[in-house]
Amino acid sequence: MQKEKWCFIDTGNQDPAFNMAMDEALLYWHSEKLIPPVIRFYGWNPATLSVGYFQHVEKEINMEAVERYGLGFVRRPTGGRGVLHDQELTYSVIVSEEHPEMPATVTEAYRVISEGILEGFKELGLDAYFAIPRTDKEKESLKNPRSSVCFDAPSWYELVVEGRKVAGSAQTRQKGVILQHGSILIDLDEDKLFDLFLYPNDRVRERMQRSFKNKAVAINEISDRTCTIDDARVAFKRGFEKGLNIELVPYELTDEELAFVHHLAKTKYASDEWNYKR
């Protein structure tokens, strides 16, 4: 039986506004049936702190530290908490809500899409599995997160290895299309990450950072061999093909499509109105 063909786009390292504009543009083009479903890989130049759509920057983010580290900054169109995009492979999946393989509920759609990520970790020789909150306390903590840091705790169907989170994802649905994007950690500088957020006092920060070590981990901390970004690209491309039972076909953007993305980046995702609006 012939596999469904999806687009595959690897835009390499781009600035934060371009990255978010590209994801939104792909969502729009797919909603207009101009392109098939899409898997996209990308990186960040400069390394960037992204915040979730609903986060309050003034209350949660240490912008002085963001500037001191020379980081980019952008608000995502998806929910969730703050993510330091540095030594990672970032992915996005764009697919119609009406796709026959996509469940109606957000959590179940996470599970289906994340099968591709799960298979990617297996390609790297890691025994990853889905996080499924079991107790009422765990479920309640998802509704009321104690931390502004995305990797502080796994959500429904996010990927964990040895009990620690290795990939963080967020999802939005617009124009009848699912956009899920997320970070697959290759390496992680925990001190830099925790410098980027605001805390009531130093003791709270120390406690949270100590706790974080038991909740999140990067691939190269647990892998028997060093994983490069290129290794991850190969593994997770295969993983998405296997996990979603699809064939990925390279897609080249036209000059007009690129111009559309750059315009959206400049007018929306690079603007203070968007990034600091809450």
TrEMBL record:
A single BP term in Gene Ontology: protein lipoylation
Residues annotated as domain BPL/LPL catalytic: 33-248
HAMAP family in alphabetical order: LipM
Keyword Membrane: no
Tree of life domain: Bacteria
Feature type site, description Lowers pKa of active site Cys: 165
Pfam families: LplA-B_cat (PF21948)
Further details from the record: In the reaction, the free carboxyl group of octanoic acid is attached via an amide linkage to the epsilon-amino group of a specific lysine residue of lipoyl domains of lipoate-dependent enzymes. The reaction proceeds via an octanoyl-thioester enzyme intermediate.
Quaternary context: Monomer.
Protein EC: 2.3.1.181
Alphabetized UniProt keyword annotations: Acyltransferase, Transferase
Membership in a protein family: Belongs to the octanoyltransferase LipM family.
Lineage: Bacteria, Bacillati, Bacillota, Bacilli, Bacillales
Protein name, as recorded: Octanoyltransferase LipM
Residues forming the catalytic site: 150 (acyl-thioester intermediate)
InterPro entries in the cross-refs: aa-tRNA-synth_II/BPL/LPL, BPL_LPL_catalytic, LipM, Octanoyltrans_LipM/LipL
Any GO MF annotation of the entry: lipoyl(octanoyl) transferase activity
Top-level enzyme category: transferase
Catalysed reaction equations from the record: octanoyl-[ACP] + L-lysyl-[protein] = N(6)-octanoyl-L-lysyl-[protein] + holo-[ACP] + H(+)
Organism: Bacillus pumilus (strain SAFR-032)
Function in brief: Catalyzes the transfer of endogenously produced octanoic acid from octanoyl-acyl-carrier-protein onto the lipoyl domain of GcvH, an intermediate carrier during protein lipoylation.
Record pathway: Protein modification; protein lipoylation via endogenous pathway; protein N(6)-(lipoyl)lysine from octanoyl-[acyl-carrier-protein]
